[in-house]
Amino acid sequence: MTAEDVTAQPATAQPVTAQPVTARPATAPAGPVEPLVQLTNICKYFLGVTALEDINFPVYPGEVMCLLGDNGAGKSTLIKILSGVHQQDKGTYWFDGQARRFTSPREAKACGIATVYQDLSMIPLMSISRNFWLGSEPTRGVGPLRFFDGPTARRVAREELARIGIRIRDADQLVGTLSGGERQCVAIARAKYFGAKLLILDEPTSALGVREARGVLRYVRQARDEGLGVVLITHNVNHAYPVGDRFTVLGHGHSLGTFTKDEVSREDVLELMAGGEDLADVGADDGADDGADAGVDAGAGAGGELADE
Amino acid sequence: MASVSPPAPPRPGRHPDAMDRIRPLGPLQRLLRRPDLGAVLGVLVSWGLFALVGGSSFSTADGAASYLADAAGLGILAATVALLMIAGQFDLSVGSMIGAAGMLLAILVVEFGVPAWLAVIVALLFGAGYGALNGWLVVRTKLPSFIVTLAGLFVLRGLTIALTRLITGRTQVGGVDDVDGGSLVNTLFAARIGPFSASVLWWLAITAVCAVVLSQTTFGNWLAATGGNEDAARNSGVPINRVKIVTFMLTGLAAALVGVIQVVEAGSADTLRGQMKEFEAVIAVVIGGTLLTGGYGSVIGAALGALTFGIVRQGIFFTGADTDWFQVVLGVFLMVAVLVNSWLRTRALKAR
Lengths: 309, 352
Known about the structure:
Oligomer: heterodimer
Distance between the termini of chain A: 53 Å
Radius of gyration of chain B: 23 Å
CATH superfamily of chain A: P-loop containing nucleotide triphosphate hydrolases
Order of helices and strands of chain A: HHEEEHEEHEHEEHHEHEHEEHHH
Strand order of the largest sheet of chain A: 6-9-10-3-11-12
Structural class of chain A: alpha/beta
CATH architecture of chain A: 3-Layer(aba) Sandwich
Number of helices of chain A: 12
CATH topology of chain A: Rossmann fold
């Protein structure tokens, strides 16, 4: 049975409780900025299971779109569609003004979509410079005598890492000697260097301590300020809220809504992720933040400190 | 810009504290980062040992020629097997390929009167082609290459014995050296320079090429990446399937070359040639500091591992002790090498 067969008899079993919220799209930003990514009614089915149903959201250049949701909400399926690992069964994936259907991660990468997976981006037993250049190695010489240009590889890797505040003794150092946060930063630096327009970050802070998470989030913000569109996948609101400009909350394969930062408080987002039932009063709930925020801030960790700067 | 919160000004010069720790790296730590350090120690220890107890002839040129010749055949294999293991794959069919390619050469020349040079080319192409088949099977079935090539070990050996008996009625074919026009082939594969055999030169040349490929080319980078983390390599755009197939072709080609050298040197082929070579090659590579799990290793180390092998095997012979003890020493060597190398690797990852 193929995915197409499934689409013929779509998810009648799925409750459509979230529909009213999905129907209320986030307001487009003022000005002539075109979205880098626009998803319209994206659906994905796996052998009779609805993985994603009618997902809509934009990602603008120079903005961080946070994709939030509990485990099994459909976050990873969605980023796999964005990065070309899976293809949507229905709906349109607009990237850079064109309707796209990437058939491989390689194709997506060639269009400027860089995905940094939680721990699948770096090769621990290879040097930093070789990791940095993997798949796009610089060479010198011609024909069969074309060799890996080690000096260039080392110099560029050093420079790019220095720009983001990671000082390394030498670029021949194994990536396995870097901390988790540094590895995330190297992966992001690599994506930026090779011309990514869209940066997809899959749980970049989930395995990190508070300080390291702060470093990675600061760098995410730096990438955004340089004009990249960023999709940040996380289940940690405290990490998402300080860097996010726009938030899409997923639950059971449905979008529970997309909001700009001034529409929701950290507390609202948390509530959306946890329950998803009390959706009606989310937007109007502006006054309810006072008492709740204190409690959230106490446990805010990396995100909280970042926001306070 | 459309962002809701104003972008914070960048703050150069202020880094997270956790990313700012650098300790000086001593020369000892630098040395310990080399994967082939263990193999250097292996060569020094084994050579020193047999120079002491192996009698006076061990340390002569003739002694050297004997362990170099022993090491050469294994070393040719080990250089390519090291590349393959760094890519995270095994090839257990190389031993059977030595017998198969050698027998193919002998039958073509002796039974069918094919010119020796042409038969050599056919045998080498057969090795590379079979390697491509191995690689294709591994890539398509997604089975561990250990299993695929273990099956190949038996299939290839069985075919060699069965077909040879079918064609010649025997399991050995002699008279390869009697054919006309074999002089070029003889010079290439069996010439002697003083006491040293041509295979030593092949060994050195192939080791040099493989070492350069591993450390100085894009393909070498892809090899280590494929073995180090297949998913990450694929995500980075490395054509991992092509990398695997090409590397299997190299081990097949190297095994066929060893088979050709043996047949040309001996003037005859035996269906049982190359038995256990697949394991000896793995041992030489592992002694050389290459990880069994792939992603990390050294071609120079594999050459030193093969040299250690030759020194121990011939050294025991020079001491006059029963050569039955060779396998005992070999097993102990393997254990010690793996222990030393895993310790060295832990140090390498600590050496920031």
